[in-house]
Structures are given as structure tokens and as C-alpha cells.
Amino acid sequence: MSLKEKINLNNLPQHVAIIMDGNGRWARKQGQERVFGHQNGVQAVRDVTEAAAELGVQFLTLYAFSTENWNRPKEEVNALMELLIHTIHQERHTLNKNNIRLRVIGDLESLPKNCFREITEAIEETSNNSRLNLVLALSYSSRWELTAAMKQIAREVEAGKINASQISEKTIESHLSSTGIPDPELLIRTSGEFRISNFLLWQIAYAELYFTPKLWPEFGKEDFYEALIAYQQRERRFGMISEQIHKTS
Ligand code: IPE
Ligand code: IPE
Ligand code: MG
User: Fold this and answer.
1) Which of these, 1, 13, 118, 227, could form a disulfide with 186 (CB 3.0-4.6 Å)?
2) CA–CA separation, 53 vs 94, rounded Å?
3) 136: alpha, beta or left, given left = phi > 0 and alpha = psi -120 to 50?
4) For 27-80, what is each residue's pLDDT tens digit?
């Protein structure tokens, strides 16, 4: 039985989020520049996107560039932006062909103009696609997102549009850049690091966390299947007890 066949299609996460980490180390291990790792990470993105679409996962969020990543050496930041523009330009056609909708979360306005333009065009061009939502987290950090949300809510309170006492979890959710996207049930991080690095702090409140030592450029469909199988073996209790979960009524 192949790994893919072991996946229960009736118990798929609706949303999988991935912290794609380890490109630089992968490249250095073979005596190459870090950017070589980023270039090779693109194939892993293609493979995992295809796997998610084939299985019927509805949302796939990929952490591609964090707010903190702006602090990397200028040459690396520039190379990443160039790669982003090039890849989105190249993949637009394939996204449409496969009925995949591109979305973005993050501080888009901080991106270089040509990058912003390429992305907004691709978002627009794929906006009617419905098979898989591919969400890129770009210039994203959770604290940036939460701060922006709180500012916006405070403005609405100031303007008398809402009362402070009316603020609910829904109010907060509706001011996040991920609004409308269900919370991820599964969060994967590659490269053997056990941390969240400012990613989706609000949204992963009850996500199952899956860590793998594989570096991102070596992560493929089979690795994605393994993560889904591990997810399906977990018991998600949401604060309750096991017997309540298994009650069949
Ligand atoms: C992840 O790989 C890609 C980005 C953060 C853009 P890294 O570039 O972080 O690679 P490592 O972690 O240094 O190996
Ligand atoms: C997290 O990876 C950000 C992305 C994958 C885009 P980093 O490599 O930037 O995270 P840290 O610095 O190891 O926490
Ligand atoms: Mg890293």
C-alpha cells in the first residue's frame, strides 16, 4: 500500500500551513550559495501544491518570506524578490490550468513595486479558481498582522462604529489578513527547527504541529503524505476528554 493510499480522504485537513525552512543549509551542504537553495525550493513548492490539489486539501498556506527576513543580507533579499517575481510569472498559467487560486497574506505594500504588481495580477487572474487556495505568506509576521488588526479595531471604536464591549473573537478574526480563510488544522515545519517564527499565532491555536528534519528543497509529495498520515493518527480533543470525542450520537 502506497503512502498516498493510506490517507483517509474523509479526514483531510481543510487547511495545511507550512513553514518552508532549510533552503540555505541545503545549499551550503553541497558547497553552493544560499540562493541556490531558494531556487531548488521552488520545485518543492510545486510538488506540495500539486499533492494538496490532487488530494482535495482546500487551503495551503506557505510561509515564503517573513517580516524578519527583511533583515537578511541585501543580496539575499533581492535574490528572493527576483525569484518570487520570476516564479509567479512562470507559474501563473499552471495555476489557472489547475484551477488554483493564488492569495497572499502579509504586508504587501512593503514589497518592491514590480513584485507587488506581478502578485496582484496573478491574484486577480486566478480569482475565479476554486480547487485549491494557495496562500503565500509574504512579508508576513503574526505580530505585524495582530498589531494592524488592533489598530484598525481601535479606529472603529474611536469612530463609534463598534463598542469595545462588542469585540469578540470574530471581530479580531475579521481584521486579520487571513480573514475568510479557515484556521489550519495542520502546521508543518521542515529543517528540524522546533519553533513557530512569528507565523499565524492566532490561527494555529488548535493546529496539530508536525516537525520534520527534512530540509525544504528535499521535501516532496511523499513527505507531505507522511505528515497527513501523522495528522490523521492524532486525537484532536479541543479541551475535552477522549470519551466525548468518540461518543457516537
Ligand atoms: C527558508 O529557508 C526560506 C526563507 C526563509 C526565505 P532559509 O533561507 O531560512 O534556510 P536556512 O534555514 O538558513 O537553512
Ligand atoms: C521562517 O524561517 C520564515 C520562513 C520560512 C519564510 P526563518 O529561517 O526565517 O526562521 P528562523 O529565523 O530560523 O526562526
Ligand atoms: Mg531558516
Assistant:
1) 13
2) 12
3) beta
4) 999 999 999 999 999 999 999 999 999 999 999 999 999 999 999 999 999 999
In angstroms, the CA 38 to CA 41 distance is 5
Nearest to 191 by CA among 29, 5, 6, 4: 29
**Per-domain residue ranges for the chain?**
12-140+184-248
Ligand with smallest separation from the Cα of 21: 1
Q: Which of 19, 21, 76 to mutate to test the pocket of ligand 2 (most atoms within 8 A of CB)?
A: 21
The whole-model pTM stands at: 0.98
Is 21 a pocket residue for ligand 2 (Cβ < 6 Å)? yes
Residue 58, CB half-sphere, CA atoms under 13 Å: how many? 11
pLDDT in tens, 81-130: 999 999 999 999 999 999 999 999 999 999 999 999 999 999 999 999 99
Instruction: Give the closest residue (by CA) to ligand 1 atom 3.
Output: 21
Nearest 5°: phi and psi at 114? -65, -30
The residue with cell 535574490 is: 79
Q: Which protein residues have a CB closer than 5 Å to ligand 3 (ion)? A: 21
Identify the architecture of domain 12-140+184-248 in CATH: 3-Layer(aba) Sandwich (3.40)
Closest ligand by atom to 142 CA: 2
Residue 239 to residues 38, 183, 200, 208, 235: CA-CA distances in angstroms?
39, 17, 20, 14, 11
